[in-house]
Design brief:
Blueprint: H1 3-10, E1 15-18, H2 21-34, E2 40-43, E3 63-66, H3 70-83, E4 87-90, H4 102-112, E5 116-118, E6 125-127, E7 132-134, E8 147-152, H5 155-162, E9 170-175, H6 184-191, E10 197-204, H7 210-223, E11 227-231, H8 245-249, H9 252-263, E12 266-268, H10 271-284, E13 292-296, H11 299-311, H12 321-331, E14 341-342, H13 351-362, E15 368-372, H14 387-400, E16 404-408, H15 416-424, E17 427-431, H16 433-444, E18 466-468, H17 470-479, E19 487-490, H18 493-500, E20 506-510, E21 522-526, H19 529-537, E22 544-548, E23 555-564, E24 568-575, H20 580-583, E25 586-590, H21 595-603, H22 608-611, H23 622-638, E26 643-653, E27 658-660, E28 663-667
Helix pairs in contact: 3-4, 6-7, 10-16, 11-16, 12-13, 13-14, 18-19
Length: about 675
């Protein structure tokens, strides 16, 4: 595969469609509908008007569509490679996705040589910029001068997205299939070099080549082109050993979120939100988090916006004194001035006054102003009374130059032709309250600072690992500079009683249990040797672990790191102790997280108020806490992929210390 091959495939001067049947006829028809101006050569031994073989082609084609079976696909690729073709879309299935297809997958790559190969097992692509469609089915794209690129690992989802009626200009729509030779990230990196492509949308089932994704995001960051992703599918790869709470709490989905945060990929949770976020990216480019403004002529809509925004972490910019006075002058004393604003209907159908109100809301500190309105059905109602909203929004955009959106509470309440007109005037059409707020939340809500250039440590495969129990794990962590309690080991209840005397009160633990609390392997706050002997006698174990009792703890936290082969090392921070899984109060970052990222993440936890001192209690030692987190990360990175998982639970944070109360490590020998 070469860059010139990618260029020839996506922007061909000539196309060869190889194979018979309805699929190949559909590709030829798609090229004609898109207005492709170059020669299209149909290759088939018996089809009417077709060229009989690849050897009979009049020239080396830039782009080929292979609509033949899997074995014939390999043979055709070998011929095309010798001929010097640019690239090919491989439609056939039966390769790596089947039990007998691995060898064929390798043979396909070998046969292609330097050609660029998309697939196999995919539909191909539609390039609406250059009017090319190597696509064997219907699609909804039309030629455009600029727009977003959308890439998916699902041909049917790509087809569905092509049918959107929401004003999104799609410049390139592509599928990656099995990614035998070129992956989703590599295709994307080639596309975003085109100045006509404004943003990138990805539907990802599996991240694949982590380095390629990082390279893509470095390039996207430099070019200032937002990347919006919908990640589907869950892997058990990060949960193969559920011996720790961390492994059960930070699965592949958490790993994907942490990775996307680090790289600066904005992650949405639905196709609707993907479309709305891409429209924002196309119109306005990269956007930092910030507050928004909302206005409607209904108190009900204002309440829905307030509740929906708050639930998603969006903030509404308070009105300035100047805005408040200006709104009073236009709306009068009967309208309560607030954000979200219900401006009533006193000025309805007076487009200049409505535009003035819209402009006043947009002129404040809000990063985006959202006008909420639903338009009536044109097939059943007279709609001219609503024309004032579109007119006023356009006037306000022209007057202020600020970002303005028009949002309907129901997805069907904004006509397609109006969406297109609004986009042409730089106004963002948003279809449906929930999807729109989901999209705005990933754009304007709180998020970790992206840093695609920062190295991402790669986990190993961890086929064979050993589990270090609490004593061994604490010894390792103490060597890394973490604070561990005074402790001792004993092989009998009586010996445990003797070792306990110098450090009373103590905690007694049965050695060798992963979840000691749940299995009766922990006794707390033992005050004398007799209590220690009695508690030890009740435990079914051969070795006892005795350590000092930490009595001045402010909060108990969990620190865990799990090797997620798909996304890197995932750091989990959360509420710790015996109620860890009940609370489910966690956040996830990618190793290595910075001190600023750790601090921000801790502040998102529900137990965060405890760290600052709650109801007169002393504050926890944040410096010691953050130092402990960073030390654990340093150990994982220093082992160069050798750690499978590590967990401290709980880390007891006091006003002066951050103490490792329990720990385990699973790593390669």
């Amino acid at each position: 595969m070469t860059q010139s091959g990618v260029e020839r495939l996506f922007k061909p001067a000539s196309v060869a469609v190889i194979g018979g049947g309805a699929w190949c006829r559909s590709v030829i028809a798609s090229l004609a509908r898109m207005g492709f101006a170059g020669p299209v050569w149909h290759v088939h031994p018996t089809a009417e008007g077709a060229i009989r073989s690849i050897a009979d082609l009049p020239a080396s084609p830039d782009a080929c569509f292979l609509g033949v079976n899997r074995n014939a696909t390999i043979a055709c690729l070998r011929e095309l490679s010798v001929l010097g073709a640019g690239g090919a879309v491989c439609f056939a299935s039966g390769f790596a996705e089947t039990s007998d297809g691995a060898a064929l997958n390798s043979a396909l790559v070998e046969a292609a040589g330097d050609m660029t190969v998309i697939g196999p097992n995919c539909y191909g692509f539609v390039n609406a910029l250059d009017q090319v469609a190597l696509w064997p089915d219907v699609h909804g794209l039309i030629p455009v001068d600029s727009g977003v690129a959308i890439l998916t690992q699902s041909s049917n989802i790509a087809l569905n997205l092509s049918m959107q009626r929401r004003g999104l200009p799609i410049a390139f729509l592509g599928t990656a299939g099995n990614q035998a030779q070129i992956g989703l990230s590599q295709i994307a990196q080639a596309l975003i070099q085109d100045p006509r492509i404004t943003a990138l949308g990805l539907h990802i089932e599996g991240v694949g080549d982590l380095s390629a994704l990082q390279d893509l995001m470095k390039e996207a960051h430099l070019l200032g082109k937002p990347v919006i992703a919908l990640k589907s599918g869950r892997s058990e790869a990060a949960q193969t050993a559920a011996l720790s709470h961390t492994a059960s709490l930070s699965g592949s989905d958490a790993g994907a979120t942490a990775l996307f945060d680090r790289l600066g990929i904005l992650r949405v949770r639905s196709l609707d939100a993907l479309i709305d976020a891409l429209k924002h990216a196309h119109l306005y480019g990269p956007t930092a988090p910030g507050a928004i403004a909302s206005l409607s002529c209904s108190g009900g809509e204002a309440s829905l916006m307030a509740d929906g925004g708050d639930a998603r972490g969006l903030t509404f910019a308070p009105l300035t004194q100047a805005q408040d006075a200006a709104l009073y002058d236009v709306l009068g004393p009967l309208v309560t001035r607030a954000n979200p604003l219900d401006y009533h209907t006193f000025i309805w159908n007076d487009a200049p006054k409505m535009a003035e109100v819209y402009a006043i809301m947009a002129s404040g500190p809000a990063a985006l102003t959202v006008i909420v309105v639903d338009f009536p059905r044109p097939d059943r109602c007279q709609t001219h009374a609503w024309d004032c909203v579109e007119e006023a929004a356009i006037l306000a955009r022209q007057r202020t130059g600020k970002k303005i959106a028009l949002l309907t509470s129901l997805s069907e309440s904004l006509p397609e032709d109006m969406s297109a007109r609004l986009m042409q005037h730089g106004i963002l059409p948003l279809h449906g309250l929930d999807a729109a707020l989901d999209a705005l939340a990933v754009i304007y809500g709180p998020r970790h600072g992206a840093d695609p250039d920062r190295p991402i440590p790669k986990p190993g495969l961890h086929i064979e690992t050993i589990m270090r129990d609490e004593a061994e794990a604490k010894s390792v962590l103490a060597g890394c500079g973490l604070d561990v309690p005074r402790h001792a080991l004993a092989s009998s209840p009586e010996e445990a009683g003797q070792h306990a005397k110098p450090m009373l009160p103590i905690v007694l633990k049965a050695r060798g249990l992963a979840h000691k609390s749940e299995m009766g392997g922990v006794a707390l706050n033992l005050l004398d040797a007799e209590q220690v002997i009695s508690a030890a006698s009740a435990m079914t174990c051969d070795t006892y672990y005795i350590e000092e009792m930490i009595t001045d703890g402010v909060v108990e936290l969990l620190i865990g790191i799990v090797a997620d082969p798909a996304h890197g090392y995932v750091l989990t921070l959360g509420a710790g102790g015996v109620l860890t899984e009940l609370w489910q109060d966690t956040c996830h970052l990618l190793v290595r997280a910075t001190e600023a990222e750790i601090t921000t993440a801790l502040d998102t936890l529900r137990i965060a108020p405890l760290l600052s001192g709650y109801r007169g209690k002393p504050a926890a030692n944040r410096t010691a806490l953050i130092a402990a987190v960073r030390a654990v990360q340093d150990y994982v990175v220093a082992r160069t992929g050798g750690v499978a998982e590590i967990e401290i639970n709980p880390l007891i944070v006091t006003p002066t210390r951050a103490v490792v109360a329990d720990a385990l490590i699973r790593e390669e020998p």
